[in-house]
Amino acid sequence: MLVLKEEIVFIVFICGGVYHFLYNERVEGLTEELRAQLMGVKLTKKEKLISEFILDNFAESCFITSTEIAKRLHVSDSSVIRFTRTLGYSGFMDFQKSIRKTYTERINSVSDNITVPSERLKLSISKLGQSDIVESYFANVLQNMKYCVNHNDTLAFERAAGLIAGSKRKFIVTSRANSCIGDMMLLLLKHLLTDVYETSHPALNVIDHLCDITENDCIVAVSFPRYSEMDLLAAQMAYDAGAKIILITDKASSPLAQYATQLLTVSVDSNTFFNSYVGVLFTMELLCSFISRKMGYSTEAKLQLIDKYISKVGLF
Questions:
Q1: CATH of domain 6-107
Q2: What local confidence, expressed as pLDDT, does residue 142 receive?
Q3: CATH 1.10.10.10 residue window(s) in the chain
Q4: pLDDT of residue 228
Q5: Pairwise CA distance, residues 7 & 131, whole Å
Q6: Whether 215 contacts 261, CB under 8 Å
Q7: So what's the pLDDT on residue 120?
Q8: Which residues of the chain have pLDDT under 50?
Q9: pLDDT score recorded for residue 269
Q10: What residue stretches are annotated with the HTH rpiR-type domain (predicted)?
């Protein structure tokens, strides 16, 4: 069994503890704002139950559907919608858009872990010098993969798979270091589905690719620190067109999360100057596995056709 050295555990504990304190402080501030909004509003017994759930699970409530809230509380979907209308919103989507925007802005005001490579390099050299590199890196990668499993339930992957499989066109949005994930995803989805496109191309940018996107389409975006402004613009463009947005990112407060239809989070923490994308690759492959199960034997003929021709040139 691999065990991290005490020095590294101590550093992670201190950094994580400070961030956790600031994060909780910001979320508590947001719930207090909502409590103030609820003051003086006459709520039914069911509406009080819904308000308590949202206050107790504020971050999660920014991203789950009204149906999921209703299911957890054993109330009707219409009860959740009526609650938001009582607060002056046109419906649940309007309410969620408001709290999600506030949540994202507030949480992003907290200083995140160091993301500038040169600064991370300085910190990592001292950390790596105190431990066995193989042992430390393996433990870090394993932790990132566990993060994916612990923070995304089966339902989240099933919803994401359903949105992708049910869309007419599927656009993969990645940039720079994320592009390796996009390339592999393109290969797998091309074998499973029709009309799959990657938006990174020398002659065209992502805006060119998405210029005719519609509500029948979806984008699968991969976004991690330091977040690309172009990816953010692409997500906004897809959102404005009514397209579905499946986002793989590191946290619910990342810039693109405000536009996400379905969110999948995974850590890219690393003990060196670059992000570790092993956990992201695991998340992407797991998502493709859910899609493969959903498609069943319908892709068998396509796979046989591909194999027939690549076998002629030994291109495996």
A1: 1.10.10.10
A2: 87
A3: 6-107
A4: 87
A5: 9
A6: no
A7: 54
A8: 1-23, 108-112, 114
A9: 81
A10: 30-106
- Cα separation, 254 vs 284, whole angstroms: 18
Centroid of chain to Cα 308: 37
Give the global pTM: 0.63
Q: Which residues in the chain are classed under CATH 3.40.50.10490?
A: 117-313
Q: Right CATH number for 117-313 from 3.30.420.10, 3.40.50.150, 3.40.50.10490, 3.30.70.260?
A: 3.40.50.10490
Residue 173 pairs in a beta bridge with 221
Query: What is the Cα–Cα distance from 253 to 137, expressed in whole angstroms?
Result: 26
Distances (CA, A) of 148 to 23, 76, 103, 104, 188: 20, 30, 22, 21, 20
Tokens (6 digits) for 312: 């002629």
pLDDT digits (tens, 9 = 90+) for 238-268: 999 999 999 999 888 888 988 999 999 998 8
pLDDT in tens, 44-102: 999 999 988 988 888 778 878 899 999 999 999 999 999 999 988 999 998 988 888 77
| Tokens matching residue 176 | 């720079």
Q: What is the pLDDT, as a whole number, of residue 223?
A: 92
